[in-house]
């Protein structure tokens, strides 16, 4: 085996740590699995943003339903109120700062009521 | 906004349509009498800004600001109310031309997860009342 092939193979196999079966040991299998993993990584960099938004929305929905409003209504009211907080921050508040979250929900409800009352 | 004493906003373009419904608020804003006109007041209090008002028929209205840095900011003002137009003018005047970038590194990490207490299913704060008031601003 030439020195250069071994070095190249070693460099590739180092990247396939944790892969299943012979893909973490043998160059030929590893390089195929690696190419697939790179494709997944490319696709999932875009998908990650979608997944996180889904998670935030689920959490917001749960948090907001405790205050007698649904996610869809809340978002509608929030876009008309002056609250510029996004789903990421709001879901974080719902999890870790429940009093602040309730305050935000109350403000949004109040501006909505004032808006429709006018 | 002024950096080291130099106001950053140099030019302000207001483009609107003379007939379209989306430009109705812009047309009202521009046609106010001089005594109550926000545009005149803005122009006199900001002599460093060159304001260009040009009709652009058949298109939605926008306000564009050009800055000392060479960058420009465009804000679409279709179907807004006059209060929003005043807000946009003030915003363009108050900001620098620089891009909005995240400063520093990632968020600060501490040991405490939460100050108010992490949410639990047993937490019941429906009776909590906060002092709230709507303020026109």
TrEMBL record, chain A:
<dbReference type="InterPro" id="IPR049946">
    <property type="entry name" value="RIBOSOMAL_L20_CS"/>
</dbReference>
<dbReference type="InterPro" id="IPR035566">
    <property type="entry name" value="Ribosomal_protein_bL20_C"/>
</dbReference>
<comment type="function">
    <text>Binds directly to 23S ribosomal RNA and is necessary for the in vitro assembly process of the 50S ribosomal subunit. It is not involved in the protein synthesizing functions of that subunit.</text>
</comment>
<keyword id="KW-0689">Ribosomal protein</keyword>
<dbReference type="InterPro" id="IPR005813">
    <property type="entry name" value="Ribosomal_bL20"/>
</dbReference>
<dbReference type="GO" id="GO:0019843">
    <property type="term" value="F:rRNA binding"/>
</dbReference>
<dbReference type="GO" id="GO:1990904">
    <property type="term" value="C:ribonucleoprotein complex"/>
</dbReference>
<protein>
    <recommendedName>
        <fullName>50S ribosomal protein L20</fullName>
    </recommendedName>
</protein>
<comment type="similarity">
    <text>Belongs to the bacterial ribosomal protein bL20 family.</text>
</comment>
<keyword id="KW-0694">RNA-binding</keyword>
<dbReference type="GO" id="GO:0005840">
    <property type="term" value="C:ribosome"/>
</dbReference>
<keyword id="KW-0699">rRNA-binding</keyword>
<dbReference type="Pfam" id="PF00453">
    <property type="entry name" value="Ribosomal_L20"/>
</dbReference>
<keyword id="KW-0687">Ribonucleoprotein</keyword>
TrEMBL record, chain B:
<protein>
    <recommendedName>
        <fullName>Large ribosomal subunit protein mL43</fullName>
    </recommendedName>
</protein>
<keyword id="KW-0687">Ribonucleoprotein</keyword>
<keyword id="KW-0689">Ribosomal protein</keyword>
<dbReference type="InterPro" id="IPR007741">
    <property type="entry name" value="Ribosomal_mL43/mS25/NADH_DH"/>
</dbReference>
<dbReference type="GO" id="GO:1990904">
    <property type="term" value="C:ribonucleoprotein complex"/>
</dbReference>
<feature type="domain" description="Ribosomal protein/NADH dehydrogenase">
    <location>
        <begin position="18"/>
        <end position="96"/>
    </location>
</feature>
<dbReference type="Pfam" id="PF05047">
    <property type="entry name" value="L51_S25_CI-B8"/>
</dbReference>
<dbReference type="GO" id="GO:0005840">
    <property type="term" value="C:ribosome"/>
</dbReference>
<keyword id="KW-0496">Mitochondrion</keyword>
<comment type="similarity">
    <text>Belongs to the mitochondrion-specific ribosomal protein mL43 family.</text>
</comment>
<dbReference type="InterPro" id="IPR039927">
    <property type="entry name" value="Ribosomal_mL43"/>
</dbReference>
<dbReference type="InterPro" id="IPR036249">
    <property type="entry name" value="Thioredoxin-like_sf"/>
</dbReference>
<dbReference type="GO" id="GO:0005739">
    <property type="term" value="C:mitochondrion"/>
</dbReference>
């Amino acid at each position: 085996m030439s020195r250069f092939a071994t070095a190249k193979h070693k460099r590739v196999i180092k990247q396939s740590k944790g892969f299943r079966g012979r893909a973490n040991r043998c160059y030929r299998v590893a390089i195929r699995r690696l190419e697939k993993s790179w494709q997944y990584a490319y696709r999932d960099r875009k998908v990650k943003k979608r997944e996180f938004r889904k998670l935030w929305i689920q959490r917001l929905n749960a948090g907001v339903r405790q205050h007698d409003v649904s996610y869809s209504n809340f978002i509608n009211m929030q876009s008309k109120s002056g609250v510029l907080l996004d789903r990421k921050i709001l879901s974080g508040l719902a999890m870790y700062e429940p009093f602040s979250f309730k305050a935000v929900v109350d403000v949004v409800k109040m501006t909505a009521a004032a808006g429709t009352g006018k | 906004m002024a950096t080291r004493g130099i106001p950053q906003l140099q030019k302000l373009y207001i483009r609107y349509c003379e007939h379209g419904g989306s430009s109705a608020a812009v047309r009202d804003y521009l046609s106010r009498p001089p005594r109550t006109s926000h545009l005149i007041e803005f122009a006199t209090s900001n002599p460093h800004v060159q304001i260009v008002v040009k009709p652009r028929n058949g298109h939605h209205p926008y306000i564009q600001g050009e800055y000392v840095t060479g960058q420009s900011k465009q804000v679409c003002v279709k179907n807004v109310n006059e209060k929003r137009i005043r807000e946009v003018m003030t915003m363009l005047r108050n900001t620098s031309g620089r891009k909005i970038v995240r400063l520093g590194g990632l968020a600060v990490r501490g040991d405490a997860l939460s100050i108010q207490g992490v949410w639990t299913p047993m937490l019941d704060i429906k009776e909590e009342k906060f002092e709230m008031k709507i303020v026109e601003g």
